[in-house]
Structures are given as C-alpha cells and as structure tokens.
Amino acid sequence: TAAEVTRFVEHVRVDYLPHTVLVDCTASAAIAGRYAEWLAAGIHIVTPNKKANSADLAYYHRLHEARRAGASHYLYEATVGAGLPVVHTLRDLRETGDEITSIEGIFSGTLAYLFNVYDGRVAFSEIVQEARRRGFTEPDPRDDLSGQDVARKLIILGREMGLTLELQDVRVESLVPAELAGGSIEAFMAQLPRYDAAIAERLAAARARGKVLRYTGTLSAAGEATVGLKELDAHHAFANIALTDNVVRFATRRYCDNPLIVQGPGAGPEVTAGAVFADLLRLAAYLGARL
Amino acid sequence: TAAEVTRFVEHVRVDYLPHTVLVDCTASAAIAGRYAEWLAAGIHIVTPNKKANSADLAYYHRLHEARRAGASHYLYEATVGAGLPVVHTLRDLRETGDEITSIEGIFSGTLAYLFNVYDGRVAFSEIVQEARRRGFTEPDPRDDLSGQDVARKLIILGREMGLTLELQDVRVESLVPAELAGGSIEAFMAQLPRYDAAIAERLAAARARGKVLRYTGTLSAAGEATVGLKELDAHHAFANIALTDNVVRFATRRYCDNPLIVQGPGAGPEVTAGAVFADLLRLAAYLGARL
C-alpha cells in the first residue's frame, strides 16, 4: 500500500547514511508516481520500470526538475533493451552535440521471436501459444501483442532525443484484434486462431514482394513515432536477427552514411539485473566512489 | 620536447582550480609514457591514444596503481571503435559479474573497407591505392596492413577482460610482405602489385568454400589473441557490414545464446572527438557536476 511505501522510504532514509538509493524493480505506475517526491528529497533512483519516463509529459518534466532540485541521480538504462547500451549511447551522442536523425529498432524480444519463427508453415496463433509456454511472452500475451510496451520504449528514447512526445502520439498497430482486447487470457488464446488467416495473408503479400515481416518501432527527428508490422527487405539487418534479439539503429549527423547499431538479447532477468547493477555502480562513481 | 610537456603540465596545474584534466589527442608513446606520473599527481586523463594501455604490462599496472594512488580518473573509450560503446560496455559487463567467453570483431575501418570492396575484379593493390587517395588509410598504409593497430586494440580489450596479455602474445597475420616492411611509402606502393596474385588466390580458395575474406581480431577467455584474415560464411554478421564499419561481438555467460553486438563507423575525427567529449562529460559527472 501507499502508506507502507512511505514507511519503507522513511526507514531507508536515515541521517547517518550519506546517500539513499531506491532500486525499483517493479513495473508499477503507482511506485513510479512517487519518483518526483523522492528525487526532490535527494533520494537517488535506479530502475528498469518504464512507467515514469513514459507517463504524461507534465510528470516527466516534474521528475527531471525534482532531480535537479534534489541534486539526485535518476538512472534507467534497463528500461530499453535491458543490458544493451541504448539509453546511454543516445545520451552520449546528444550531450556531445550530435543530432539524431532517426532511431529504428526491434524493441520487443517477444515480437522479435514471433516473427523470426513465423514462416507460414505453423499458424501464428500456435507460435504465440508455444512462445507463451516457453516463457517468452508476458503471462497475458496481449501485453506484448498490443505494441504498448514498444510504444513506451519509443517514448523514453524520443524524450531522450528532446522530443515532446506523449504516449498517445505514437501510431501503434496492435496485433490484438479489437474484439479480443477484453476478456480472460484463456478466452483470448482460444479465439486467436480465427485471425490466423489474416496474418498469413500479410505474410504472403510481403513475400510476393520479396520481403519479410518484422514488428518495428521508428522515431524521426520531426517527432513521428510509429510502431507496427513492417515489410523489410530480406537482406535488411533487422531481418537477420535471431531468437529474442533486440536491435536499435541510430542514424545521426555523425553516423549518417552508416548508422550506429546495438544488437543482442534485450530482455530477461539476468541481463536486466546486470543493467540495474551497472547503473548502481555508475551512481557510486558519481557520488565519489573509486572503483 | 619532454621539458616543454613538463612546463605545460605545471602551467595547467594550478592551486586555484579544483581539478586538472589532460586530454591527450596524440598517438605518441612518449606522451603516454607520462600518464603514470600525471595520474599519481591527481591529474585526470582522457584520451583516444592507444599507446599507454597497449604498452608492456608492467607499465599498465603502474598506470592503474597511479590512478588509485592519485584518486584520479583515466578514461579511454575512444581507443577502441571511437564513439561506439565498446570499452564501456565491456566494463559494465565485467563489473556486474558477467564472464566474458570471447570477443571477436572487425576493429579496423581501413581493413574493413578493403575487404568489403575487394571482390577479385580489381587488384588488391589498386584498392589500397584508391583507399589511400580517399583518406581511408594512414599516410603509410602499412600502419593499417600490418595489423598492429588491431593488435593494440585487442590488448586493450583483453586487459579490460582481466587477461595479462603482452602485445607480443598476439598472433598477428601481417598483410605487409616482409620484404616491403622497410623503405619509403612510394617504394612500398610501387611493389605491392607483385603480391596481388597471392591474395587473389586466397580469395578464390575462400570462395570455392562459399566463404568471404575478412580481417578480424579474436580474444578468448583462455587468453588466446589472434589477428588476421579469416574465411567467414557469407551469411556471417561480419560479412555484411558496409564501408568502414567496425563490429564487435561480445559472447558472455549472460549473452551466450546470442552475443551482444555493437556496430558502426569506428574511426574518423568526428566520432572520435564525440567519444573524447563524452568521456570528459563523464569525468565531470564523477567529479560532482550536475548535468
């Protein structure tokens, strides 16, 4: 409860310790809603929780004002691509005066996997079923298929680029049929095969043009943000990733002929914990620790 | 001269400034030889100069002891891959407890370019000539073709992995014929066509096996370090980079099924300056600046 969280924060914030850091490993919007208050009080925050940075812009600005007012640090590398150097790399580029032209990528390990595997021989709904069994999807696969998770990551990167994007500004193509958005997980999984023909048709159409289907996110310098299924050339870098790989491609003024690309597993407990731990060490260095 | 460098260091190190940082953008071994003394005196160093970290191990250890003794920071992200997040990423992985299995990559933009372009239709020596004209090689192309620059980068990464490697431990396949190692640049360029047949044969042999030729560097956890021409599968990630791209692939305990890959232009004044500047901002953050 909120009262318990308050008691917890009071408990960790004691005068005889020089620094307090809260590591929020939940995905809770309620916890993320407290960040501004904590940062203003000088409490540092390290988190893989996307909710604060993808909340409405007013809160986002309040967060960063609170951070400045509290002289506290707010580190969230793990929010995009887990342990892959994404937020970091983007910030280094911007802070050293580069201009970001576009960011494109496959930001969901789940959706990467589904379309890496889907070749038309096995029905799409069966691949979803199998991915769920193997733990590659959220308990409710609609959380992945809706594209909302990818949209949140785009918002985080877009704001890091300096864009004033709101979540509703992202054009999201959801793979969850509107009729199945509500209801139980079981009902959803049972109904999903009815939509296999439609997605099989998309694949066939892409193939007829020599393309493959990939679920991507794209951000432009002009502030356009789109998330959805895209037909890509079979030789495209995004067409040749494996398993649950994420891939992020930064095109910038400096990296114009060839973009800067970061690729690899972008989700999972181990790599996420690694990223949170790396942020914690970075915080220690900022606070004067000699590592 | 050494005396001038000493006077310069005395000049920048004044009591009324809280911090002193020297940014060494030379490639000088003599300047790099002074780092230990400066770090011990509390002067921070930011540099793209590979010479200090690839010097003999005794000096390398002395450097890092001096850094600890002087409570100073020594930042050198730009030594490998310029602005690509390489040193950084490796350090985060190690410091958070990951174990590096191997690091493989194309670490030379020049050699990447030469073998991306070389398809047997134009003689290799002509491609070298053309690359030199376009400024893609060092003034003396032997500095690239010898593989020494790649070997130095491997040493830097190997030591970052915790290996006790000396430069002479790296097995380097030089593309400079032994007879042409000495003498003027012009004599070298004039003689190079005599070796075109030999390299054309290597390409033909690779092709007969369905492979391509790429100049790569490889480090194993066991401490094996090799640099040279390798036959790669045509679908290999390293076979499909463009222009002067570098690519670095980290296989670790966490990134075991799929490695973590960083790719993009890894040399050039703009991206190198960007990396040096990013290190400088990081230093400022370590010293308490609120950015």
Number of strands of chain A: 9
Q: Give the overall shape of chain A, derived from the CA principal axes.
A: globular
Question: How many DSSP helices of chain A?
Answer: 12
Number of domains of chain A: 2
Q: What separation lies between the terminal Cα atoms of chain A?
A: 37 Å
Q: In the CATH hierarchy, what is the class of the largest domain in chain A?
A: Alpha Beta
Helix content of chain A: 40-55%
Structural class by SSE content of chain A: alpha/beta
Poorly predicted residue ranges of chain A: none
Greatest chain-chain interface? Answer: A-B, 45 and 45 residues
Overall residue-averaged pLDDT value of chain A: 94
Order the strands across the largest sheet of chain A as they lie in space: 5-7-6-4-8-9
CATH fold description of the largest domain in chain A: Dihydrodipicolinate Reductase, domain 2
Describe it.
2 copies of one chain form a homodimer. Chain A is built from 12 helices and 9 strands. Chain A is an alpha/beta fold and 291 residues long. The first copy, chain A, has 2 domains: 2-82 and 270-286, Rossmann fold (3-Layer(aba) Sandwich); 87-266, Dihydrodipicolinate Reductase, domain 2, CATH 3.30.360. The first copy, chain A, has a 6-stranded mixed beta sheet with strand order 5-7-6-4-8-9. In chain A, strands 1-2-3 form a 3-stranded parallel beta sheet. In chain A, helix 6 (109-117) packs across helix 7 (124-133). Chain A is globular and about 65 Å long. The two termini of chain A are 37 Å apart. The relative contact order of chain A is 0.16. At the A-B interface, helix 5, strand 9 and helix 12 of A face helix 5, strand 9 and helix 12 of B. Strand 9 (260-265) of chain A pairs antiparallel with strand 9 (260-265) of chain B, so a sheet runs across the interface.
